[in-house]
Amino acid sequence: MTSVHRLAEKIKKFIWIIVAIPLIFGVAGWFIPIGKTAVPYTATATMSLGSYSDPDFNDPNRVMIMLGNAPFFQKQLPALWKNRQNELLGQLKVSMVKNQLIQLSFIGKSKDEAISTVNQIASAFLSADREQYQKRETLINQSISALLNGKINESTAVDRQRLLYNLQTAKLDLKPAQLLEPAGAAPGPGGKVFSSKQRAVLGVMLGVTIVFLWLAFPEFVRERPE
């Protein structure tokens, strides 16, 4: 009896099993909620650092260290730190894109959570940065005001004018940090969610594959007479 005849006889004998296995896997795929687990999302935001002679807020390397450690969150975001300190630093990535550009990335359990967390961190940094920027600006304004209102004489007039020019130039060069790209989120790797129909099709295909192997494999390994 040839292999084809043996396969035909086997199919005829076990036809109900052959039909049932793909159907069972298809039904199981339809109802089993594979792929409905929470999909991780990564939200990112990009900030441009300020320029006002404060290395803690203007130096990218120092800013990355600041945003990657607990003291910043304990001071600027105490509620967020209290509720999520175990996951916060582990899911947050702070990187320098180029020059004075800093990118914040956070992996959240949902799109809203990821975006909300990045927005909170960015807003807290920008708020702290604005505070330091205003201190620097106030100091320069006070110095300019003192020079303009102070008494002058011929011997100090040139120095006064030079210093006044330098302060006014420095004021024009001041700038705070800015949010260049607001937070946006995308699914993380492996985050595809299969619909019920897709799962059913995959189940049927798996069932057909199992049936094929069950029918054909013995014929491939069957010993042939010499």
According to CATH, the fold-level topology of the domain at 41-135 and 174-187 is: Alpha-Beta Plaits
Q: Which parts are unreliable, with pLDDT below 50 for 5 consecutive residues or more?
A: none
Shape summary: rod-shaped
Report the sheet with the most strands, covering strand number, pairing sense and barrel closure. Answer: 4 strands, antiparallel
Radius of gyration (Å): 34 Å
Instruction: State the strand order across the main sheet.
Output: 2-3-1-4
Plain-language structure description:
- With 226 residues, the protein is an alpha+beta fold.
- It is built from nine helices and four strands; from the N terminus they run H-H-E-H-H-H-H-E-E-H-H-E-H.
- The chain is rod-shaped, with a radius of gyration of 34 Å.
- The mean pLDDT is 83.
Label this structure with key terms:
226 residues, alpha+beta, Alpha-Beta Plaits, 4-stranded antiparallel sheet, 9 helices
List the helices and strands and how they pair.
Blueprint: H1 3-13, H2 15-31, E1 41-48, H3 55-58, H4 60-67, H5 70-76, H6 78-91, E2 92-98, E3 101-108, H7 111-149, H8 154-173, E4 178-187, H9 196-221
Antiparallel strand pairs: 1-3, 1-4, 2-3
Helix pairs in contact: 2-9, 5-6, 7-8
Organism: Sporolactobacillus putidus
Protein name: Teichuronic acid biosynthesis protein TuaF
Transmembrane segments: 14-32, 200-217
Structure in a nutshell:
The protein has 226 residues and is an alpha+beta fold. The chain is built from nine helices and four strands. A four-stranded antiparallel sheet has the order 2-3-1-4.
